[in-house]
């Protein structure tokens, strides 16, 4: 039997193999360019030279078969000090390619789903076998000519069939007992995919029974049930499509995600681009959600170095590797999303959430219950409020605690966060002392920059003609943008007494914690 005949035989049995071909030879080597061999998980056919070089090449081939390494050229040095230990005095390149076996689909049960699934799988190149213990259902006339139809006991027939990583078994019998026999045979045969068509109650009974009979829960976790991808639709044809979609996705180790450049199905709109809201944006964006930030025209963001709202002043801001950019309208925002950039829109009411049918709306305005932001449950599929002023289960779906302490970042699905007590977070014993506030109404003009070190009594800026002094030594961690008209008592910035040990360009621990809480709520409720 030639090597290619052997390869065809292996493929027909659904057994993957690696084909090794010498593609370059330099100097003395045991075989010539074009010589080949086949390597499977436990066998070898042909030779590319024997000895250490062949042993190493076979090891590399099995790594490719296992998916640990990619196919490609491997170089073997046949000289003293080379990577083989051989001293022939030459070198050769071997191309290692993975040859997939014939994709096989075994269907236990010849009913309505099987009648739809078999022809669909045949069209996609699967070799299909249908098994049923009822003669009327094991009727070849109900299936394509290429389909192998077997009348017999599910467990016995499936146990006699060749199985491997290229084999998928879909179980859709009329009884939990028969389902159990078919699933057991698929597990014993180490089929690459095992799917069970069953209700939750029936599936639990089947898997529990198999566990009681000695099958490990780790192995039972491989059984896909509910079976198939959630594609919607109903009826046997829709179920068949969902099953084959999942089988094909698993076979090709694919994600099943949309391949479109921009997917708005999971769009998140975050109201408020301050430092805490930006921690939420960062977490969500890093988790793969497309995020749009909405703000007022001149946001009073304090920690501007880590606030996406700053993009409305500088056009673009980068927060720990994530870029935010101002967008004039929704069309421009969509273009930025397609480029993996966070759009920042002037949209105080977050109307973009309705216009783009956002999946999630997060209110990160941080009003602290002092006024009604207008966010309501129903503004999106999932609505999350941050801090006091929201009641989970009433005006929003979830509330994230923003008060420092043991509850920080906790998500409430009923009830409210703790009330705002008016106390800034404590830093080395300082609370109000570290906050810079406007002494009067007027235009704010800063005299220092974020990241500067200051000493108690230093003038950090003016509001109108009134100086603003820092009460403590430390590092300027935040300042609102210069030129803003502010009211008396407005927070203008903050000084961190920890000094240069703090990096103002890094998202705070609090912001990241809140982002984690929002991400939990989104994943749970979406």
UniProtKB/TrEMBL annotation:
* Domain of life the protein comes from: Archaea
Pfam families under this entry? XdhC_C (PF13478), XdhC_CoxI (PF02625)
**Which InterPro entries is this protein grouped with?**
MoCofactor_Util/Proc (IPR052698), Se-dep_Mo_hydrolase_YqeB (IPR017695), XdhC_CoxI (IPR003777), XdhC_Rossmann_dom (IPR027051)
Q: Which residues form the XdhC Rossmann domain?
A: 105-247
Q: Where is the XdhC- CoxI domain?
A: 12-68
- Official protein name in the record: Selenium-dependent molybdenum cofactor biosynthesis protein YqeB
Q: Which organism is it from?
A: Haloarcula argentinensis
């Amino acid at each position: 039997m030639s090597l290619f005949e052997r390869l065809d035989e292996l493929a027909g049995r659904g057994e993957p193999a690696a084909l090794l071909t010498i593609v370059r030879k330099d100097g003395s080597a045991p075989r010539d360019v074009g010589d080949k061999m086949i390597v499977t998980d436990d066998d070898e056919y042909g030779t590319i030279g024997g000895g250490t070089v062949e042993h190493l090449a076979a090891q590399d081939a099995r790594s490719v078969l296992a998916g640990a390494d990619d196919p490609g050229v491997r170089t073997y040095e046949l000289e003293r000090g080379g990577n083989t230990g051989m001293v022939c005095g030459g070198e050769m390149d071997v191309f290692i390619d993975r040859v997939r076996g014939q994709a096989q689909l075994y269907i236990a049960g010849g009913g309505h789903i099987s009648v739809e699934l078999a022809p669909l799988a045949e069209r996609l190149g699967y070799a299909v076998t249908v098994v049923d213990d009822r003669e009327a259902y094991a009727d070849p006339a109900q299936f394509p000519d290429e389909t192998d139809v077997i009348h017999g006991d599910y467990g016995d027939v499936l146990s006699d069939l060749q199985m491997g990583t290229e084999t998928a078994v879909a179980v859709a019998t009329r009884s939990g007992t028969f389902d159990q026999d078919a699933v057991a045979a698929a597990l014993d045969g180490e089929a690459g995919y095992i799917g069970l068509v069953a209700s939750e109650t029936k599936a639990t009974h089947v898997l529990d029974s198999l566990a009681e009979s000695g099958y490990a829960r780790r192995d039972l976790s491989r059984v896909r049930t509910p079976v198939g991808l959630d594609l919607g639709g109903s009826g046997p044809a829709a179920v068949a499509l969902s099953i084959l979609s999942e089988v094909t996705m698993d076979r090709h180790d694919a994600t099943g995600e949309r391949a479109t450049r921009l997917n708005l199905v999971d769009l998140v709109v975050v109201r408020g681009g301050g430092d805490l809201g930006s921690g939420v944006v960062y977490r969500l964006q890093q988790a793969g959600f497309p995020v749009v930030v909405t703000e007022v025209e001149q946001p009073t963001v304090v920690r501007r170095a880590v606030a996406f709202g700053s993009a409305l002043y500088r056009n673009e801001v980068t927060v720990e590797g994530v870029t935010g950019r101002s967008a004039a309208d929704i069309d421009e925002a969509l273009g930025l999303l397609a480029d993996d950039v966070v759009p920042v829109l002037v949209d105080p009411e977050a109307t973009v959430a309705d216009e783009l049918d956002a999946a999630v709306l997060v209110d990160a305005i941080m009003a602290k219950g002092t006024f009604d932001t207008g966010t309501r449950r129903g503004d999106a599929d999932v609505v999350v409020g941050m801090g006091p002023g929201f009641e989970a289960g009433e005006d929003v779906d979830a509330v994230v605690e923003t008060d420092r302490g043991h509850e920080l970042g906790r998500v409430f699905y009923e009830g409210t966060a703790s009330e705002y007590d008016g106390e800034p977070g404590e830093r080395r014993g300082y609370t109000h002392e570290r906050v810079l506030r406007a002494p009067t109404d007027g235009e704010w003009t800063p005299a220092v920059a974020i990241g500067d070190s200051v000493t108690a009594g230093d003038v950090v800026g003016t509001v109108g003609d009134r100086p603003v002094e820092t009460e403590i030594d430390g590092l300027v961690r935040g300042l609102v943008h210069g030129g803003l008209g502010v009211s008396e008592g407005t927070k203008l910035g903050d000084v961190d007494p920890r000094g240069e040990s703090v990096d103002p360009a890094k998202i705070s621990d609090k912001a990241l914690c809140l982002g984690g809480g929002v991400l939990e709520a989104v994943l749970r409720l979406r």
